[in-house]
Specification:
This protein has 102 residues and is of the alpha+beta class. The protein has a single domain, classed as RRM (RNA recognition motif) domain (Alpha-Beta Plaits), CATH 3.30.70.330. It is built from two helices and six strands. It has a four-stranded antiparallel beta sheet. The N and C termini lie far apart (45 Å).
């Protein structure tokens, strides 16, 4: 059973420590990760929080989906496994992001 949450629509000022403090109200946290732009090293406005159990993850969704943090309403739901996200075609010319075709 999955206990990893996607946390979106975050202010660029939010820190991992703030998320850890907030989500600990719902239970024990395994891991917190804010996603950063690899070039600029600035936050991308979303991250992941992994709770210890699925029950705690569900409680966190109920408590914090639409919760306002630093002036923005967070979106909290179960994270989808990497293989379910699609977009990666593999092989020659697959994946790798967007390309301008003009």
């Amino acid at each position: 059973m999955e206990s990893k949450l996607y946390v979106g629509n975050l202010s660029y000022n939010v820190t991992e420590e703030q998320l850890r403090e907030l989500f600990s109200q719902a239970g024990t946290i395994k891991e917190v990760a804010l996603i950063m732009d690899r070039d600029t090293r600035r936050p991308k406005g979303f991250g992941f929080v992994e709770m210890t159990t699925q029950v705690e993850a569900q409680k966190a969704i109920e408590m914090f989906n639409e919760h306002e943090l630093d002036g923005r309403r967070m979106m909290v739901n179960m994270a989808r496994p990497k293989e379910d996200r699609g977009g990666s075609r593999g092989g020659y010319g697959g994946g790798g992001g967007r390309r301008n075709r003009y």
